[in-house]
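Students often ask why we bother predicting the structure of a whole assembly rather than each chain alone. The short answer is interfaces. A chain on its own may look different once its partners are present, and contacts between molecules only exist in the joint model. In this exercise we take two input lines together and write out one structure for the complete complex. Read the inputs first and try to guess which parts will touch.
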Amino acid sequence: MAGVASYAAISARVRAMYAELLTPQDMIRLSESPDFISLFNALKNTAYGPYLEGLKDKDINPRRVIMQAKRKLGDAFYSVIQMAPVETRSLVKQLYRYYELGNLKAVLRALVTVHTGNTDVGLWERVRDVLFPLGPASVLPAQAMVESGSVASAVDLLQGTPYEEILSFAMKRYSAEQNLFALEVALDLSYWRRLWSEAQRLTGQDRQHSVRILGSLLDMNNLMWAIRYRVYHKLSEEEIINYTLPFGYRVKDSDIRAIAAGADAASIIARIFPGIPDLNALLEHPETGLPRLEVLLKREIMKQCLAAFVGSPFHIGLPLAFLILHDFEIQDLIVLIEAKSSGLPEEEYRSYLLKADLLTQQ
Amino acid sequence: MFFPEAMTEVELIVPSKDLLAVTKVLGKHGVFHQIDSTYLGLENLGPNTWQERAAAYSTLERRIQVLMQNLNLQEEYSGPADFETVAELEPLQSAVDRIEEDVKKTSDQLNEEKKKLEQLESQLHQLEPIADANVDVGALRQSQYMYSVLGILPAENVSRLQTSLSRVPHAFFTLREDPKRPVVWLLGPRSNSDVIERAVKSAYLNPLSLPEEFHGTPAQINEGLRKAIEASKQRISELNATLTKLA
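Now the answer. The structure tokens for the assembled complex follow.
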């Protein structure tokens, strides 16, 4: 494990950046903005101000504002990666790769959308606006992939990247099935395996905290995968097991296998997360219940992240917790921006706000 | 380098009986571009035997070009390109029919043999990962009660695949250890073939498709494949020699 000295600077920097995160009260105030422009103006008075000031009038639209908000998160990652002790850096980099994974999926989906008959006019321009602004940190030749015109040609362009090996297997299935599901699942599993393996490689408090924080994220994904594969995709027990992961922090492999085998998911989740209410009702109406369950599981992760700020700050758990809280804040802002721009009434989006929800629970 | 020149569109109306003579005169100047007049609705003005004849010559030319390609001959026009020297169509057609038949037969055989060689080489390539395995692959395939899958999968998926089949009777063998792409062999009751198939598919196992006509261990199959590849190459060489003679 990295020593106390190696965490002095990063700990101070992360605490300073943490202080700039929006509070639950800020989120509620933003939520009270009557429309998108008012929200945009209110955001300019927060830590997002410097990222929004430069936007020209014609660029003040939901997509561009979300992109600018994401830039702040990108800068936070860059800062943490630069300051993190050497032995933990590859873990933080792998966590950051999550956004690259999202970009890769977006590019592949764009290619399939074009392939199925939609217009390809200005495709790159449209795709570019939904990609996370990773800049030179990304190994994806995103524009060349989009312009290659097909999934197969785009995947060929990934030679020499961490995605080449796993996609070489998944592409055989894609060729036969013409469905991105096989590619996306393979990419997800590979990403989380690498992240977990990086966390396991650490020692002492670094390992303990990273396993707790990242393992909680993994728990949520694994649980939601297993439930969705069973409920929506009607996959067999064997398939669900192969499409999920055997590790996590609180969710054990036996829990995932039980869900895969058809056991009562509500009782399994209730045992692991006793604080989550009305599980039976949530699972009985999956269309509305599962997104709500995901929000509640994210709240559990937020609790783990907030707990990292209590006690010794000399471990990688603190920067990881900050980055995840920052990501959740961006998710909240996306909900708000989209809701305000489409004129949704508060009762329709409020339950999806993680931070405001946290305040309600307090 | 060709450069465009300004052109003038001219419409000439001549009696059908003078068509050849007029065309010959115009053709000698080498600057007159004829266009298809059918879109003008002129085809109904009189008999169009010249158009039919031109089409027949054009078809014949295409057939000769294909023949020359099959015989690896270069297209060279050594004779004069004058209307007076144009050969009669009918005797030419029968000669081309005869040559075409000879060339087509050999050419088809050659293409078929090339495909066969490609397939054999692909099968040999597929067998490479399990060349050292001492298993009678052919016997497994013919099993009435057992379902067997042989293939390569990502190393990180191996243990999950085994876990996923924990409630299904099966035998799992790693035929070739590899840090990234191990070769595995899975056996189970034929009654569970659907379950096993879905499991291996979801573990991203890429099955190896082995040649039906060969039997024995991979090493024995490899030997058979190599012999078949040699024979196929020999046959291709003979067919190429036949085509050279025809040329």
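Check your guess against this: Chain A is about 70% helix and 0% strand.
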